[in-house]
Amino acid sequence: MTPCAFRLTKCLLALGLFSLASTSASASSGPGQGHAAPIQARETFDESLTLRPLPDGRVSAAFEFKTVVRGARPREPGSLGRAREEGDVSQHYALFPLELGQILRAHAVAELHLGLRAGKWDYDAWGAPGAWTTADPSPEPHAGVGAGAAGAATGAELYAWMGDAGGGEGEGGVSIDDRWTGLRSALAGLFCASLESLDERRTCAPADAFPPSGTLPPLASQYRPRSNASGSSIGAGGGGYYELRHALQPAEHVCTENLTPFVRLLPCKAAAGLGRLLNPQKLFGADWHGLGVHVRWVAPGGGGGEGGVELVLAAQGVFDPVRLSGSYRSRDWSFQRLFDRLVEARCPVARSSRVYVELPQDVAYSVVPEPTKVEGAVAMYDLLAENAERVDVSLRYLLEKQFQYPTARPPSLSPLTVRRALHGTSQAHGALAVSVTNNLDTPVRVGYLETLPALVTLWLHTLTVTLDGDARPRNDLLTDLTYQPPLPHGAHTGPSVLQAALAIPPRATLRLSVDMGKAFLRYTEHQPDAMRGWDLPGAVFFPLALDDKSYGAGLASAKNSNETAVATTIGYRIHTPNLLVDLATPDFSMPYNVIILSCTLITLIFGSVFNMLTRRWVLVDMDEGLDVE
Amino acid sequence: MLSSLFSRCWALLLLSLALWTTSTTAEGETPEKQAADFFGRHESTSGHTNNWAVLVCASRYWFNYRHMANALGMYRTVKRLGVPDSHIILMLADDAACNPRNPFPGSVFASSSRSLDLYGSHVEVDYRGTDVTVENFLRLLTGRVSPDMPRSKRLLSDDKSNVFVYMTGHGGNEFLKFQDSEEISAFDIADAFEQMWQKRRYNELFFMIDTCQANTMYTKFYSPNILATGSSQIEENSYSYENDADIGVSVIDSYTHFVLEYMERINKTSQTSLQDFFNAYNPHTIRSHPGVRSDLFQRPLSDTLLTDFFGGVAHAEIFDSSSSNIDFELDEEFASKWQAVYDDACNAETSSDGGDAENSSERVAQSSIRKIGEKLDLSPGKWKEARKWASVASLGALIAWAASRW
């Protein structure tokens, strides 16, 4: 096809997109038609970029692209096993990415969170990840992603809530585990990521730490109830229930090939709007970067208005303008300097397109161009305004010749400071040590979760808890311990899952230590770069539902064990960085030596024995020549 | 009376002559010719309708940056010449672009001038990191993948596909190392190609390899229609081309650098043949002795265009119905067997997202079914034949009638 014709097709496509958008916007969504509500109800697209200067001279830039399909709801899992014609409604989207919609409906996923992140998130200096500003009353993202769902687990993290109608496989349903397998393969293909490695060796279901951030739709009740619902599931009425699947691959690399499909899911791609700023050469040069895909269902009524399926594509980078400026050592930043691009044009299908800039305090600065609105310490730019062409927001510190790094550590922006390390030099044993400091003036109750692959085994009888360097054990501070031992080999492999509730007195440091054994792997189980060691996923500290008994009911009993002031919990999940565990590695050339040696021996023995068994020993009469018999 | 008789006779004669001429001229216009005229230039003698490329960088670690750059240079070339991303399987054993050691994050350069970023903004890496194993490579070639495998990680080629396979890494006599932990041998690749041939997964295959003692890797091939070339002969190393002081390692291998330089002069309409390309090999500048193996390849290299393998074509496949009837007899049992398989696949496909169920066996079934449909129709060739004989008969009848009246 000639370039001209190609351009024409693109134009036609764009026209088609517009007409679809306008017709779908004008069509009023009729009353719900059972579970097959019309998909092409109304779709909205909002995009925002939140820029937050950090105390260490860095700048956090968090993009959020939110698409809502109003009136839609996730597919009923009971319809999965049926024939094609009655299985599912057809999908027509104007703004919602069809590639993702097909995957979600093919596996009947109610809620999905995928994160591809690299680097260590410094909670103390940077606060919570995601799009929020310090001016917010609580460190919660002010746009789409629910509290803490943004997350900062290093590597590839995938978790999904999937429903089971309770009919079991006998009624043609597809099991949650099969759908989980299909889901991660499909997403691996879509996002060019190695998500196939998130197999059963890494999959677990820590439902308390990863509760649904939206609502799980009630399941249809025409299916037979299942008697033995597992502990990690959430009932959904009518015998159906929801289960979580969570897996984390800490060694995943994140690069341009992940951003390419990510940008393709945006309605305006990288051509217009804020998606223009997603420049791989700059984003992947950031000190920390993360891509996130968050799909959830918002129930109608309540705060969600009409409700519907919400997709938030989140991208975040922590840039260091001081490093980028070279010898100038300036922390002034602009779109041009951070992203090497400008917002060339507005995205015409966006309902809102905004840039939030948190303004520095107690420092002289200038911000260019003039913001559309300033609310407190946050300046807002509306990119859909008439004069918003080639927008390059820049912030300059007027009286600062060179940025001076703060000598004293500023007060932590995080309620907890967590350090986690592996101790011991042996290749057979080790110890896991975690220290948690409460930075608040109130006692904190927090959930603690370790999901470790079968490479290491924790020995729970060695678990000790101490407080503030005091040698006396304080096991009363750790309650509601659950432990699922690892299943290393065979058909039932799985990670070890340790979950507990911690109570930390105000301004105190709690130290937790547990011994562990390191696995001796089979020769074929080693990964290519075996000498480097294995990445262990980080621990998770998650908010406890202090008075909510709907799930995590076992953890709620920890409430009465602390006698001091009213306890609080943290507002978002805190992920610790990964660890590297050094396992015993064989001499990989040894099998060849063994093979060669044993082959030689077998050849010698077999050859001589075979020779002796088959050879006939006869006397040869030399006079009659060599004529035998 | 006689004149009217003559005029009627002439009219009939003209009519039958007209019939004869139309049938004979229509015979000259074969469907292939018509299709070729319709689709324009069709100078390639390959007969393929689609192109696939499998590009493998088998080396891990930062110091093997040049192998990543080799594969990405090939990726850029085949993409530039028209092979779409969906038909390119790119395997990179390590992440050079976003490696913390890379002073240019998100970029891979193949020359110290750093004028061309091979990673760009639209790269799609299908297998990466620990996914690049000998097992996955052989499964990709032979199509023996899990049903959950997404389309982007499958080689969905058919018997009209020209497949270009490029491999680079560290190797030796009849082996190539993957990830510094396992090897693929020349026998493994030869057997995989034979299986591809038996499963009708390629029309012609061009194998190119850049590694030490690369020419030993294609010595074991025994399947038809394979053309192979390598960077260096036995007991000979392949060397890197140049270093970059800022990146700190070698950025490209000598042989691949030569190939990419040559390819930069080629565009989609180029008539450069593979013979021209091989003639341009210069052991002095490449610093090793590249080899070519063409004994399995059926066409003369001077008639084989470079773009038959590096470029993307979108030709329609015209079935010659008279020739397809001949091998149909052989295929009947085969087709009925695959019809059942195809039905099963259709039923099983209902709940999947539609793409995963397509595999080579289904394609075979589809083509067989297509052939069944053609047999039931009255084919145009037979119709032409019948018309020819009818016109001859009418002409004969006219002559007989005229002779009887005389």
From TrEMBL, chain A:
<keyword id="KW-1133">Transmembrane helix</keyword>
<dbReference type="GO" id="GO:0016255">
    <property type="term" value="P:attachment of GPI anchor to protein"/>
</dbReference>
<dbReference type="Pfam" id="PF04113">
    <property type="entry name" value="Gpi16"/>
</dbReference>
<protein>
    <submittedName>
        <fullName>Gpi16 subunit GPI transamidase component</fullName>
    </submittedName>
</protein>
<keyword id="KW-0732">Signal</keyword>
<dbReference type="GO" id="GO:0042765">
    <property type="term" value="C:GPI-anchor transamidase complex"/>
</dbReference>
<dbReference type="InterPro" id="IPR007245">
    <property type="entry name" value="PIG-T"/>
</dbReference>
<keyword id="KW-0472">Membrane</keyword>
<feature type="transmembrane region" description="Helical">
    <location>
        <begin position="592"/>
        <end position="613"/>
    </location>
</feature>
<keyword id="KW-0812">Transmembrane</keyword>
<feature type="signal peptide">
    <location>
        <begin position="1"/>
        <end position="27"/>
    </location>
</feature>
Automatic annotation (TrEMBL), chain B:
<dbReference type="GO" id="GO:0006508">
    <property type="term" value="P:proteolysis"/>
</dbReference>
<protein>
    <recommendedName>
        <fullName>GPI-anchor transamidase</fullName>
    </recommendedName>
</protein>
<comment type="similarity">
    <text>Belongs to the peptidase C13 family.</text>
</comment>
<feature type="active site">
    <location>
        <position position="170"/>
    </location>
</feature>
<keyword id="KW-0337">GPI-anchor biosynthesis</keyword>
<feature type="active site" description="Nucleophile">
    <location>
        <position position="212"/>
    </location>
</feature>
<dbReference type="GO" id="GO:0003923">
    <property type="term" value="F:GPI-anchor transamidase activity"/>
</dbReference>
<dbReference type="Pfam" id="PF01650">
    <property type="entry name" value="Peptidase_C13"/>
</dbReference>
<dbReference type="InterPro" id="IPR028361">
    <property type="entry name" value="GPI_transamidase"/>
</dbReference>
<keyword id="KW-0732">Signal</keyword>
<dbReference type="GO" id="GO:0016255">
    <property type="term" value="P:attachment of GPI anchor to protein"/>
</dbReference>
<dbReference type="GO" id="GO:0042765">
    <property type="term" value="C:GPI-anchor transamidase complex"/>
</dbReference>
<comment type="pathway">
    <text>Glycolipid biosynthesis; glycosylphosphatidylinositol-anchor biosynthesis.</text>
</comment>
<feature type="signal peptide">
    <location>
        <begin position="1"/>
        <end position="26"/>
    </location>
</feature>
<dbReference type="InterPro" id="IPR001096">
    <property type="entry name" value="Peptidase_C13"/>
</dbReference>
<dbReference type="GO" id="GO:0006506">
    <property type="term" value="P:GPI anchor biosynthetic process"/>
</dbReference>
